[in-house]
Specification:
Number of helices of chain B: 9
Structural class of chain B: mainly alpha
Distance between the termini of chain B: 87 Å
Largest sheet of chain A: 8 strands, antiparallel
Order of helices and strands of chain B: HHHHHHHHH
Number of strands of chain B: 0
Largest interface: A-B, 60 and 73 residues
Largest sheet of chain B: none
Strand order of the largest sheet of chain A: 4-5-6-7-14-13-10-9
Shape of chain B: elongated
Number of strands of chain A: 14
Radius of gyration of chain B: 22 Å
Shape of chain A: globular
Oligomer: heterodimer
Distance between the termini of chain A: 40 Å
Structural class of chain A: alpha+beta
Strand content of chain B: under 5%
Strand content of chain A: 25-35%
Order of helices and strands of chain A: HHHEEEEHEEEHEEEEEEEH
Helix content of chain B: over 70%
Radius of gyration of chain A: 22 Å
Amino acid sequence: MAEQTPLTDETRMAAELAAFAAGLHIDREAADRLEAQLMTLPLQAAQNRPVQRRVNWRAWAAAAAILALIVAAFLAVPPLRSLAQDLIDRLFVHAEGDSQSIQFAEVDMNSIQHLTDLDAVDALGDRLGFDVLLPTYLPEGYTFTEALRFPYTLGHVVSLTYQDGNMQLYIDQAPVADRGGTETQVGASAEIVPMTVERGGTAYSASYVQGDWAFPLPEGAPTPAAGAAFSGTGEWRSDIPKRQLVWVEGDMIYQIVCVAVTPQPDPVLISPEDMVRIAEGLK
Amino acid sequence: MTSTLSEAAEASAAAETNAAAEADALRRAFAAVYRQHVDRVYRYLRVRLDSDADAEDLTAQTFISALTSFDSYRGNPNRAANDVGYAPWLLGIARHKAADHFRKRHPAALLPADADDRFADDAPPPDEVVAQHMQIERVAGALRALAPDRAEALALHFFGGLTLAETAAAMGRRETAVRMLISRGLADLRARLNSGEEGG
């Protein structure tokens, strides 16, 4: 390659490309400067800093319409508002207690892209740099409603939405690096169930949990607008009809969520075993 | 009470000492990973981007992002169980940094209009440094003119140093599909480079 002679075959091209790549090195001074910088940056995990949490935008988008109803059905006075805790994170870990301060950043709701055509969803993956997986198995009754692509500032997340009457199923897919953060906290009393998702001949460790954080609002306080910044003290409630399964494959994180849209007695949630089946059927 | 307070203070100091020691150990471990992989991350970014400065900048961003999640990634049971190294993880971060870079700053840079002109430029290099710069521009320009998937597979495999299996995992493709992308990508690249030489 150095002499720019005509290239004749694939093998030679591969060898020359490899040799050319091996000759590329970052400038040593730049590398040393970066190393020095890295050694002085704060270590979030080591210093046990509180994790900056972001809102579950999809839940946040839908929350304004449905939260009051969830509150009415599942929680006593004072009125409580339930939001999904999201997502930046990879697997569930217990918080120190069932009550903790949580902040949600403001979200530009207009920046969320809605797709109702599965072909468009498939093409979306090409632009985002990862393949959007579609389920080959769904529990009976669930049909595709839309896919949401969340804005860059919140990571390249694609969320497939399916619905069966009052029940919704979300399949979220995102690069781990885009989500940032470290882990999804659940209440100290939450039962985190280790599961296994087998895909492509590989067994992946997954975590399952039921419940959600609920947020009490002062008496008479209006429900914040969808996407508005919010902070408050969350209370973990394992009786909230929401089930989540999360696992990591390579640099991608996947999350399957089953939740009741509106409060109804005895909601028919998807079983953990069926959630695993959905996960294993993603192609 | 004095004794209790003193013991509490000592315990607090010990905890701080332990935390500092853990942080120091984490930094040292990350520094080793950095030294081992910085060139491969840079190579991948350099061949995907327009300039040395952008490649260095995104290399820095990649490792800064990696540092924030290094502890959790290191302890990830999937990684340990499957004996996955750090290269696929770092290249995964680098891929997204590069994609972000294009989206935010150079929306047309994925397929630069002047790519063919760039690798066709065969003006004689005045010295070795310039010659190397022209070579990377020539190869990078040709690579960027390929179909995106083929270019990405070549960049991850040859410049990022990932195995075929790791490249397949990074791209969310089957290994056989990546093998095909690389084969076709090499053929396309060879044709473009040779075409550039003949056309110069």
